[in-house]
Amino acid sequence: MKPSSSPSEGGLFDGVLARGAVRDQVGDTAWLQAMLDAEAALAYAGAEVGLIGRDQAGTIAAFCRVDRYDLGELGRDAAAGGNPVIPLVRALTAAVYEADPEAAKHVHRGATSQDILDTAAMLVAYRALEPMLADLTATAETAARLADEHRATLMPGRTLLQHALPITFGLTAAGWLVALDTNAGRLSDVRDDRLAVQLGGASGTLASLAGSGVEVVAAYADVLGLAEPVLPWHTDRTRVAELAGALGTVAGAVAKIGRDVALLAQTEVAEVREEAPGGSSTMPHKRNPVSAVSAVAAAQRAPGLVSTLLGAMAQEHQRGAGSWHTEWLPLRDLLGTVGSAVASLRDCLGGLVVDADRMRANLDLTGGHLLTERVTTALTTRLGRLAAHDTVTRASAESVASGRPLGEVLAESGIPADEVAALLDPASYLGSADEFIDRALAAHESTVEEES
Amino acid sequence: MKPSSSPSEGGLFDGVLARGAVRDQVGDTAWLQAMLDAEAALAYAGAEVGLIGRDQAGTIAAFCRVDRYDLGELGRDAAAGGNPVIPLVRALTAAVYEADPEAAKHVHRGATSQDILDTAAMLVAYRALEPMLADLTATAETAARLADEHRATLMPGRTLLQHALPITFGLTAAGWLVALDTNAGRLSDVRDDRLAVQLGGASGTLASLAGSGVEVVAAYADVLGLAEPVLPWHTDRTRVAELAGALGTVAGAVAKIGRDVALLAQTEVAEVREEAPGGSSTMPHKRNPVSAVSAVAAAQRAPGLVSTLLGAMAQEHQRGAGSWHTEWLPLRDLLGTVGSAVASLRDCLGGLVVDADRMRANLDLTGGHLLTERVTTALTTRLGRLAAHDTVTRASAESVASGRPLGEVLAESGIPADEVAALLDPASYLGSADEFIDRALAAHESTVEEES
Amino acid sequence: MKPSSSPSEGGLFDGVLARGAVRDQVGDTAWLQAMLDAEAALAYAGAEVGLIGRDQAGTIAAFCRVDRYDLGELGRDAAAGGNPVIPLVRALTAAVYEADPEAAKHVHRGATSQDILDTAAMLVAYRALEPMLADLTATAETAARLADEHRATLMPGRTLLQHALPITFGLTAAGWLVALDTNAGRLSDVRDDRLAVQLGGASGTLASLAGSGVEVVAAYADVLGLAEPVLPWHTDRTRVAELAGALGTVAGAVAKIGRDVALLAQTEVAEVREEAPGGSSTMPHKRNPVSAVSAVAAAQRAPGLVSTLLGAMAQEHQRGAGSWHTEWLPLRDLLGTVGSAVASLRDCLGGLVVDADRMRANLDLTGGHLLTERVTTALTTRLGRLAAHDTVTRASAESVASGRPLGEVLAESGIPADEVAALLDPASYLGSADEFIDRALAAHESTVEEES
Amino acid sequence: MKPSSSPSEGGLFDGVLARGAVRDQVGDTAWLQAMLDAEAALAYAGAEVGLIGRDQAGTIAAFCRVDRYDLGELGRDAAAGGNPVIPLVRALTAAVYEADPEAAKHVHRGATSQDILDTAAMLVAYRALEPMLADLTATAETAARLADEHRATLMPGRTLLQHALPITFGLTAAGWLVALDTNAGRLSDVRDDRLAVQLGGASGTLASLAGSGVEVVAAYADVLGLAEPVLPWHTDRTRVAELAGALGTVAGAVAKIGRDVALLAQTEVAEVREEAPGGSSTMPHKRNPVSAVSAVAAAQRAPGLVSTLLGAMAQEHQRGAGSWHTEWLPLRDLLGTVGSAVASLRDCLGGLVVDADRMRANLDLTGGHLLTERVTTALTTRLGRLAAHDTVTRASAESVASGRPLGEVLAESGIPADEVAALLDPASYLGSADEFIDRALAAHESTVEEES
């Protein structure tokens, strides 16, 4: 019973912050339908266990369609009792009563408002994770392609925003790939193992279901395709927190890649650009990396939302006096914003234009200084580590001060010129870069196979 | 030009988390109208300075009405350039062009997208703070009334959720009052002094306005009734952070009071109850403090949102590559959720039913143990501080263990029985409670006078 | 090579916020030793692969003892290069040089500062998780005992801090148990699967190790007993974020239990108390639930720290320009504060005194109102759901208003008095509580077996 | 009584994350001394009001010196009661008793633990803000100098990390200046107006001081040089939150400037560099902007800490059951980390080397594309806004595609070549940049005068 589809209306900032398909799974309509799906599943579960007739369950389920209810009115009526399930159950019961008064007696049977709302939250999450995982997987595919294609594309490695040693763009993409695959794997595990139904009744005993409570829970979980919990988790919010943690981690991985792209696309760096960069209202020449920027923007909302959800875990006794209610919007916002971030990153990487010549040109900007580590190491066997380090530091400083090539200065310190030239060739100083790419691609392949 | 009115449609959780009048000031429609107000004000400012004709400004302004535009479409079209102002300016220009091609040349003149969006954000904040301050002020009035009416209403002071010394409910309410007044004062100062227009053009120089940029900024601020900044603050987000900090502090003050009410309303405590407590879908006897719970729920979203806004301050160079965009939704959400929290607290306190008899009964629950500090102090003059402390500790332990009244046990330690009785009378051990209430009420009066 | 022991000096707030054994694993000394362990392991790994002699590795390792270095001086010297590894390597190299100049050439070979610091962070985390998991497990054992012992101990279920339906204290404890077990399981998985060595050299290629980089990484991981990564993760902070998320979730679970205890220990509720409650400087009668309060206090620091770590994930290119450095203290603080929270909770639950009589007395406070759901359900078969709900609501209101017992009022509505009495007996309205306890205990048993 | 000096020992990460003079004001020793200062002030206040003899107060004060107490032991003994004031008062009383048993009776008179700890927190904050404000002011001075000196230093304005319009480095520095001045002003206001003593006794009534409570509070505030509150603020944490908000805002302003410097110092940009850039353990050529990176690193810890402090505001009744204790370390960490961030920024800007030639060279990189807005505006008067925009967009695209200078392409579209040349001169297209610098400097001057 997992799919849902409820294209909500567009918001003013959606093109930037609610991109992709997750958006339609986390709107008000999707939540309300998920609540109704929970009520329908509860009726079916009751029928499975023999508490109510199958026809009655079918009648109840027939009224569990979002277009039968006035969402705005339910929202307003939520004020009196503190949640929208109370007016929803009233409306659903009244509707079923019209069709079959006997069936109406079984609406919401055994459940408390939180059972329906928590189960709906888990359904919403499950449904939102589908397009999010699809976007993550597609983005990982792109990263895998870039890693393989650009194995030999030399570029400067950069630490603290300064040139360090040569790397390849393939290795950069392989790093992105591992992050994307790891995060997709964790998110997928959380979806399969941790998204569970909620059913406990008013105080978590399922008292009103007499002895069949446990059976009903199992059937309810089965109908909805969600996990079955050991016991009701009304005030054990570990599941919500694990979901939040996984989403927050995805967001961080996306923000890292998006920022890398924005930095590589800087006017002075220009090593990559987006396929369809953004314009500006006043500067027609701008080539803004809009998808990368949108990915970063959406991803950066996540840490605060995660902290709100973690902070709301301390829920009192058998139902929280506020902290439970605190969760609703941040959970929705977190799913939505991470979904948007991933969708933006997919667009960004999917059409990334890589300028290998510019990467090489940038690598050569410093005239070989990126290879001082190598030279230091080569000298270490002759001079010892500290002396070698100092020698190269001096040569490097002189080269910078005088503007003379580093190779020239180094050659004067007694190393044969051809050795210097060989030492300063970046292509031969890439260490295990290629092996690392292979390992990342192999891990990716095994992930993909596992999924299929 | 500050009022705006745009009742947005209701959401599923609005009755709990979007209560009161702030909600209508922070929706998409309100934002879009604020952007249009900024464009109109820019045209008027240009006319004021003589850059464009007054008629042209009037023509532009005539098209700055939200119902002329398709908000959803603008939101979708925001994707290409990374913000909704780009398509809005295009649509506005086209509309004005139909009416007066000359006027169309002056649409958005001198401005960049961020000028319009930031100014709109400040306008939205200004307008949202009006009902929020009204709710805060009304809540403070209620607290002042409670403080005065309940000067003599004895109740247990509670520390770490344990009875401590006797206090009065009036003192409790006076503490709430000071918090509410202080926060309203700060919020009001931020509104008046720190909400400023934004106008800098593409890189913050107002280059396209030639020499009249500074004059235009002054006129623009004047039209909108917002503060005039020293220079464009595109990437100096201090103003946004100050607003966020003030709102987060309000939220904390509200959460404290809401939690106090929920605790005082516990079944076992029952010292207060809401006028219209909430029911439950399954437990008709419930008297849930729904307004207090809703206040806490909404307020607890604030710290995470504040941290997101503070974290987004590190915006690159002349316009942030993502962090600026990150601000939009958290700022809106923060205004909205704090507005809802304050509105819920107003409902909660406005109809609070105080049970003075129950307060007194709870005070007597421990048979005088709350006054051990007083007894200790009285004994200190005879025995010294440490010995007195130990004596009373022993008497207290014996009283608890034996179930005998503390007074009886104490009388055996050599203090005259009538002195013990006098020492154990809570009404005569309230220290400066009354003076503190007077000070709080006096401070409140001076605040109210200042406002009017 | 995992154990470490470095009792750091006590701080002013340690008795409240740095309780238990985790504290000694996260102090400066523990970090410095972990860095040295990483250097030693790197030497051994080099020997394993044949890059350096075994004797040389042994010589280097002999100098990797924390008491040989001046921690404060290293900290000060960290300023110049931006991290403490740079002066440490200098000092270590100098020390080794004295003993064996050849060995000195191999100190820190192939590594960059971040390799050592990140590996140290993972070691610190690994070592800190040992006592934390021990405390969690012991706390879970206590919860299991309480769940079993108090299967029949009736108490009021409480929702929104109001009495709801009857439950047992055993069910309450079973809920705590599941939360503790789930969190311990996740934390244990993160420790075993996600704490990995870091080794990539200056730009993540291990360029200076020529072709043997991958082999060295494997040996390095083997020596340290940490996981081997697919490739260097210098700017893929997924591992750190997963650890943070797991810790933040533990904190939330602890805060929930600690808050429950503090609420149950309230003067008016008095259902539990700590074995050794806290006193007060001025109120000798106080029985403060100090361990619960300390647990909550420490746990509440976690969400903000997690958000900082998630926010720091967007690290630029091959090494972050600030965000990497941002991680160090929050990671340490998070480990330390969650460790303290768990240790405090262990103390709290370990000596928890449960007052079953008081629980029953509180349950009877409302004269049967907790069972209105049951009565409603019983009436539903006769009257239909809505009518039954309304009838009971009216009876409940009348009972409250008149002060007459609910049973008496209900009997007048036509239900036989003995049926009313049976319906109002809480012990026969516990639904699946016992089964849920059994399930929680069974799950706990299987967890314990798995661990051993 | 405000100065304190207690150089604490150095930590492993202090050179990066605890730079400057704030560090010594927030360590354990500083906190303990502040607690003792509060006890001494309380004694003097009692003497002022006539509750105790002046000699007795002097005797008490004589023992209020941090070196008389074992900090580690106090920390350990804090466990029993939940805070370190309880053992401290016991130790202080015992010490005074030895000297004068009568005086010992007056130690801690009227106060509760929270009075001393909260007052100490305010003192610690006051003392920490002194060096922080000194660093902020010095940094602002540097920014003012840079703004003035570099009025004519042309550089590219950058939006979304892409070149936008020309600006001057002076304008950039003026923007930093306004942010620094505004933040210093707010911080200074919070220090003067909002840091207040705490004195309420066990439940906030000052019951044990009988009628003289209010007088004692006034004298206590006077002795300490802190503000006098309207009433005790034990559970109204507005003051702490306001301080936190101000510090978080400072952090954001610092992070923005630090990030700007790190970006401007990138190898490919190279417009600025630090006077003493950092080296690397393996790459001797590195010129890492270590102070900027350290500033960013420390500043980024702030948002999470602020959210923890805001989240801890909901403190129960008359003393929080955990949330009060939660505050202690985050407040200290926030003061410390913001202090370090400001100190690092002071170092960073103080020695900033500005390369005006490189700025100009970068400005010319795009061959005039930065001035397309200007050209568009010039064409707008002939063609209308949309047509002008499209024309320039096309010319720009052709220039990029063909590699021909923009001026050449534009000249072909009918604009006279000399007009094109004039339009493409950046120095004549700076709008109000100079006026904005003047305004920022004037505002700075008035701030400085106000302070002195």
Structural features, described:
The structure is a homotetramer of 452-residue chains. Chain A is mostly helical and 452 residues long. Among the domains of chain A are: 112-361, Fumarase C, Chain A, domain 2 (Up-down Bundle), CATH 1.20.200; 368-423, no CATH class. Helices cover 64% and strands 4% of the residues of chain A. Chain A is built from 20 helices and 4 strands. In chain A, strands 1-2 form a two-stranded antiparallel sheet. The longest helix of chain A is centred in the first third of the chain and has 37 residues, at 113-149. Chain A is elongated and about 100 Å long. Chains in contact: A-B, A-C, A-D, B-C, B-D, C-D. Chains A and C meet through helix 6, strand 1, strand 2, helix 9 and helix 11 of A and helix 6, strand 1, strand 2, helix 9 and helix 11 of C.
Question: Which features would summarize this protein structure in a list?
Answer:
two-stranded antiparallel sheet, homotetramer, mainly alpha, 452 residues
Brief account:
In chain A, 64% of the residues lie in helices and 4% in strands. Chain A is mainly α and 452 residues long. The radius of gyration of chain A is 29 Å and the shape is elongated.
